[in-house]
Each structure stands twice: as structure tokens, then as C-alpha cells.
Design brief:
Length: about 80
């Protein structure tokens, strides 16, 4: 487990992200843990999430909509 102070985290976010690929990174504020940085894979494993953002955006459960097309002869009121 890696522990960084808020100052260390702010000064080198890239280092924290690299460390989070291997293990959770705890960020402390005045000596007390306030945040945890996890890789997305670890987060998904912990939450049981199996869908990706692409799966969620596809929205396969929505019914197809049948929208009437506008006719060229129709005019819009202004």
C-alpha cells in the first residue's frame, strides 16, 4: 500500500497514477487518509462492474423509435 501526502500527490499526479496500477494509493491530509486512488480494473473488480462505458452507451435495452419524417412540402411556423 502506497501512502502520499496531499502535497506529494499534487506535486506529482503521474507518479500516483503509476503507483495505482500496482496497488491502491492512499492520499493523506494532515496525517489522516482522505482519498484512495485505484486503477479502473481494481475498481471494477471491487464493485462487480462488468460493463464498460461502451456497453453502457450502446443502451441495448431501449426500444427503437419510429419517428415520422418531415415532408418537404410542410413549412415551419416562425
Amino acid at each position: 500500500m502506497k501512502v502520499l501526502t496531499s502535497r506529494e500527490f499534487n506535486q506529482d499526479v503521474s507518479q500516483a497514477k503509476r503507483a495505482a496500477r500496482l496497488e491502491p494509493v492512499f492520499v493523506t491530509d494532515r496525517g489522516k487518509p482522505t482519498h484512495v486512488l485505484l486503477s479502473i480494473e481494481t475498481y471494477r473488480r471491487l464493485t462487480g462492474q462488468t460493463e464498460t462505458i461502451v456497453d453502457l452507451l450502446a443502451m441495448p435495452a431501449l426500444p427503437a423509435l419510429d419517428l415520422p419524417s418531415a415532408r418537404a412540402s410542410e413549412t415551419w411556423e416562425r
